[in-house]
Myosin motor domain-containing protein
Amino acid sequence: MVIKVGSGEIDDLSTLTVLDKESLLRELRARYKKGIIYTYIGDVLIAINPFKQLNIYEKQQHDLYKYVQYRNQLVPHLFWIADQAYRKLCLSKTSQCIAVSGESGAGKTESTKLIVSHIIHCSGDAGDRELQNRIIETSPLLEAFGNAQTCMNQNSSRFGKYLQLNFTDTGRIIGAKVYEYLLEKSRVVQHGPGERTFHFFYYLFAGLEKETLEYFYLDDPETYRILKDPCGGKVFPDRSDVAYCRQMFNTQKEIMQRLGFTREDINMVFTILSAILHLTNIRFSHDEETDGVYIEDEYPLEVGM
Ligand SMILES: Nc1ncnc2c1ncn2[C@@H]1O[C@H](COP(=O)(O)OP(=O)(O)OP(=O)(O)O)[C@@H](O)[C@H]1O
């Protein structure tokens, strides 16, 4: 039986006789319209961001892909890729790697979390539940400090991430290490219109009471240039997102505590963030006479300067 391109029924695009851009896109589009976001092309999985919650990541799906023998018995899924890596790791006792790539907003961060959740599910019965939860919780914490709203994505990762999971010979997770690289440091002092700096700066102002802000030498958010939109002058967190930011602040603080940060550690984090915020208000000017740079005494509070 021949399945027509554009029917949305081709699970593996490498089986197409004509593998050109048009056929690939036509088939992917047809599948997406049917609500199928995953398609194989050989050993590679193509994922199309659905931008809505789908019921395909429940425990039931984890179990299905954990126990299925052949890939064509089920629809393509990210869990199959995660499952294969875990199975090969256990069978061959050699390291496995999953590379996730795509443009900003494509869904890499969400996909990575789903891959980790499936691997943890697979190694779950033999594993240390507390350790597994801690591995899962590092992602939202890193996102709070390394992600920001951009024009492409409200939760855009502004750093690259290499997550290493370590296992025993029997496939039990015994640890994890995150290597982060190429953090977009310039976002601390500058961001484009409609974009923001790193999430945690906003969480801080929404989450801390006035007296605690003062304890960390922090003023109202309007004082800090970086918390303003460079064009609109709007200061964040504003009324529309203060409740969300407060909730995120509490969540991140709880995660830090669960990950073993002491009270002093957390205070140190807030102190460093406060220092960074003050530093971002320093304004440098060019000295015509000496052709050098000097710090202006006072930062003019007009936005966009
Ligand atoms: N599988 C999915 N199901 C539902 N929504 C998703 C899925 N993947 C991504 N999204 C949505 O798309 C948004 C962007 O995804 P994500 O942050 O993972 O992109 P990204 O590729 O990591 O982007 P960036 O490179 O900017 O960090 C998410 O915040 C989420 O709302």
